[in-house]
Amino acid sequence: MEGRHMSLDVVNYTTLIDGNCLQGKLVDAKNIFQKMKEKNVEPDIITYNVLVGGFSRNGLIEEALELLDFMETQGLKPNSTTHNRIIEGLCMAGISVWKIIVPWLTGAAKGKLVKKNSCSKLLSSLCLEREYDKAITLLRRMLTFNVEPSQIMYAKLIEAFCRDGDMKRAQCVFDLLVERGMTPDVISYTMMINGCCRVNCLRQARGIFNDMKERGIKPDVITYTVLLDGRLKENLKRARSLQRGKEREVEKTDDSPFWNELNDMGKEIEPDVYCYTVLIDGHCKTNNFQDAIELYDEMIARGLQPDIVTYTALLSSCWIKGDRYRVITLVDEILKG
């Protein structure tokens, strides 16, 4: 365009910078920015935001922050887009930027310049890095400056703590979610129940399940599967303890209430392949072979196709019990399927 003696304005230069940033050509983008100033075309806030976003997405932290400082010397103040582009860009680049971001994040939050979406991405990044203390700090800073975290942010923290087996902090975040006037959904409840089952806190899991129903949140098939799996694993743990002589009396945990409740749902909630497989595998491992076979037959009668995990559980149990006929029958079914 310049060769044709056509002058470029700020929009043209910004478009060129953006194009180069998107292609990862940061040197070219920076050169266009310099040329722009040489031609006495003043960059506007959009130009700076485009370039700072490009630096951030490519992990160039120092360049992004230097541009931020330079921008202010030119009489332009960073706006919400500026801060959000830096946060989102650095998160996309997978860079731990807590020490760099927090000082100006706090200042920006006072003016409510930071979007919830950007904070959500930063929180996700911190959870992936297992920086849970920092994630909690971010949540508290948001609350301090009256920036209400979204329900998704609470759910991400709950998921992270449950995955790590830290049910105390998971419960704290869950309680805070309720205190802030939000109603946990079926996903949040199921994550809490699963977390409790994984750390063998079945009584607490049952309490959360009851609270869920009292609040009018309907459990889904995954919720029931998690509870059934937890019950069966508890039975297996007790059976093994008995074998090692660590328990004199073993009271079998009954999973039938959950199973009956699920079946009573009728067409509203139906057990799927994964649910049946969890039950079959659990019964096989606790030597309730006949129950496992009955569940398998029921599964087939419902028109559900067993997967390789289902067959593996049954085949292993049949082989241990010496039921060669059943082994041959199951292998034939696998080959035909």
Secondary-structure element string: HHHHHHHHHHHHHHHHHH
Structural class: mainly alpha
Percent in helix: over 70%
Average pLDDT number = 81
Strand content: under 5%
Rg calc: 29 Å
The main sheet comes to: none
* Helical run tally: 18
Categorize the overall geometry: elongated
Number of strands: 0
Low-confidence blocks of residues: 109-113, 247-253
Distance between the termini: 65 Å
Descriptive report:
The chain is mostly helical. It is 72% helix and 0% strand. The protein has helices at 10-22, 26-38, 45-57, 61-73, 80-92, 98-110, 116-128, 132-144, 151-164, 167-179, 186-198, 202-214, 221-243, 256-264, 273-285, 289-301, 308-321, 324-336. The N and C termini lie far apart (65 Å).
Task: Spell out the blueprint of helices and strands.
Elements: H1 10-22, H2 26-38, H3 45-57, H4 61-73, H5 80-92, H6 98-110, H7 116-128, H8 132-144, H9 151-164, H10 167-179, H11 186-198, H12 202-214, H13 221-243, H14 256-264, H15 273-285, H16 289-301, H17 308-321, H18 324-336
State the main characteristics:
single chain, 337 residues, mainly alpha, 72% helix
Summarize the structure.
This protein is mainly α. It is built from 18 helices and no strands.
